[in-house]
Amino acid sequence: MIADASAALVFSVLTNKPTEVIDHHDITDKDGNKKSLVRESFWTKLKSVSKLSVLMVCSTAKNTGAYVNLNGLIPNHAYQVLSAHEVVSKGKVRRLVKVRNPHGANIWKGKWSPSSKYWSIPSVKQLSGSFSETV
Q1: 16: how many CB neighbours lie within 10 A of its CB?
Q2: Residue 31 Ramachandran class (φ > 0 left, ψ -120 to 50 alpha, else beta)
């Protein structure tokens, strides 16, 4: 058992494949200059890689507080990244990342959760077939 290891190390050992780690606080721009967050390049890469059907994971930061945050995410826990989508809602483009808890517990309770008021018929239709719950 690999205890307290990074997701990248675990997946590298399990799959015998190379891994890439992208810390959203340490993304570089096209010239290699570090910025606190280059959102556009990160989002573009996330969307393009999500179409390749490769294994992607994300993780939450350590938290000395409650076991489960109010939004349903578990601190210091890895999640599988299933897909990335853009939805137009109320005239604004919303970026959504679908993740899955490998333990199958603790459903997301924040904005755009399954029971969220942010969903509308048009936004659901935009994701029809690509954002199903059958994973």
Answers
A1: 7
A2: alpha
d(C-alpha 118, C-alpha 125), whole Å? 14
State whether residue 125 is helix, strand or coil.
helix
Record the pTM: 0.70
> Which one-letter DSSP state was computed for residue 75?
T
Q: Which of 46, 47, 24, 49 is nearest to 37 (CA)?
A: 24
Strands 78-89 and 57-59 come out as antiparallel
Which letter does DSSP use for residue 105 in this model? -
Query: What is the residue-level pLDDT of the chain in tens, covering all 135 positions?
Result: 445 557 778 878 888 877 877 766 666 666 666 665 567 778 888 888 888 878 888 888 776 565 666 788 888 888 888 888 888 888 888 888 888 888 887 788 888 888 888 877 777 777 765 554 433
Q: Which residues fall within 8 angstroms of residue 15, CB to CB, at 6 or more apart?
A: 55
Domains along the chain with CATH numbers: 7-126 (3.90.70.10)
CA separation, residue 41 to residues 30, 33, 72, 75, 90 (Å): 9, 13, 28, 26, 25
